């Protein structure tokens, strides 16, 4: 494993740097990208920010979000590529062929990281990649201005579920304290990132709640949406984010499930739990994730997917 000092030295000597992150970027992906991007620009480095998928709307208010290039990788000759929050090559699949020969600096916090970079810095104890970027900036002696602070605040607050998940540590709060001192404003950020919902998202949530059912003596709650229902609401991926938590957070429920029929007729399943190891269940069904947050895709009819997953989950719950 490399050190942040080594990474800082590389970044200071590189001429043309590409910063990129994973497909379907989340708050940690975008926040880390912007935070490191600005700081390197302030240090006079030539930096390109790239995300294969567009920046989700709720992060577009962040200063510099419009500078993130998405879609096609601009054909410049990068001598250094930094991947942020990516556990393996698949997470940067759309550009992997174009970047694989470059010096890749892999900065991440996923325990499953396969160290695909030439230089790897993976800190499993960090709540978010944004927390590592914060440390890298202090090694780089980059100034923390309000824009950098806001970007890193978004990275850390989203990956910790607003400081509620078990990855939240004392170090997380110390970093956040510095970000607030540097000008990050929860009052500006929270409504945009966490609270605001599009009408489409609320419409599709209503449909999902309408489908709510319980199994295993109320220990399992599940919701399901057909492709037709999703289409009628005009909902996209972003609108379906977090719906599964409404099932999980009902009193007496240990496991919440959300089944979603895709256009290709496969069924995407989100699994969340308080105690049961749903990661194990998802893995047995060809998916993956963490013990209390996992997912899988099943190539079967919605009703069959429901039966299959419910049977596996019930076995886990009654263990
Ligand atoms: Mn992350």
TrEMBL record:
<feature type="domain" description="DHHA1">
    <location>
        <begin position="237"/>
        <end position="316"/>
    </location>
</feature>
<feature type="domain" description="DDH">
    <location>
        <begin position="16"/>
        <end position="156"/>
    </location>
</feature>
<dbReference type="Pfam" id="PF02272">
    <property type="entry name" value="DHHA1"/>
</dbReference>
<dbReference type="Pfam" id="PF01368">
    <property type="entry name" value="DHH"/>
</dbReference>
<dbReference type="InterPro" id="IPR038763">
    <property type="entry name" value="DHH_sf"/>
</dbReference>
<dbReference type="InterPro" id="IPR051319">
    <property type="entry name" value="Oligoribo/pAp-PDE_c-di-AMP_PDE"/>
</dbReference>
<dbReference type="GO" id="GO:0003676">
    <property type="term" value="F:nucleic acid binding"/>
</dbReference>
<dbReference type="InterPro" id="IPR001667">
    <property type="entry name" value="DDH_dom"/>
</dbReference>
<protein>
    <submittedName>
        <fullName>Phosphoesterase RecJ domain protein</fullName>
    </submittedName>
</protein>
<dbReference type="InterPro" id="IPR003156">
    <property type="entry name" value="DHHA1_dom"/>
</dbReference>
